[in-house]
Amino acid sequence: DCEIGEYLAQIHNLKVCRENLENMIKSEHDAINKEKDGIVAEIAKFDKQIRVLQDELKVTDERLKLKDEEIYQIKENYESQLEEIAIFDDKEESVRDDFVRIIPLASPHIRATSSEAKMEAKREEQKKKISTKYKELQDKVHNLCNKLFSTREVLLERDSEIARLQNEIKNNEISLNNVLVDFENLKQGYKLVEDELALTHHENHEMK
User: Fold this and answer.
1) I want to staple 78 with a disulfide (CB 3.0 to 4.6 A). Which of 45, 106, 160, 188 is the partner?
2) What are the record keywords, sorted (predicted)?
């Protein structure tokens, strides 16, 4: 009876230990899933922001392309005007003065060049923003992967420990079953002995 009680207590303790480990692992799984969901939400948020920035950058690039075309036309006109002025350098002053008056028409070139610089600066700023967002996102994903890998190693170790405990419980249950069988055999033997003693006692009583 004492040995059976010890086996039962040991099996109970192992089962409690297994339940505690399983609950601990479940809690860690839940915590990791919650954190992972948060990271996924952040990634989605960053993706949306990046798409918006990319759309803005695309629009800016299209505007810059138009501005480049405008600037090209302005430069062409400006150079053409300069060429025309050069052609008439040897002509009369009055004719050259008429062409000199065309020069102020090139002033939009200066404004366009300034606008081009501003647009280029804005585009560079947007590119930097996107690069920064990507870097932050990559760092978060990298950290998450490291944490998940580390936790996975711990979970594998605990899964191995649970498997070992389960095997130990199985072996103990087998041992307990063997003990119970032996105990039943002992009870049967004890009953036979009692029956024999009772029969002997009865026979002795009759002989008296």
Assistant:
1) 106
2) Coiled coil
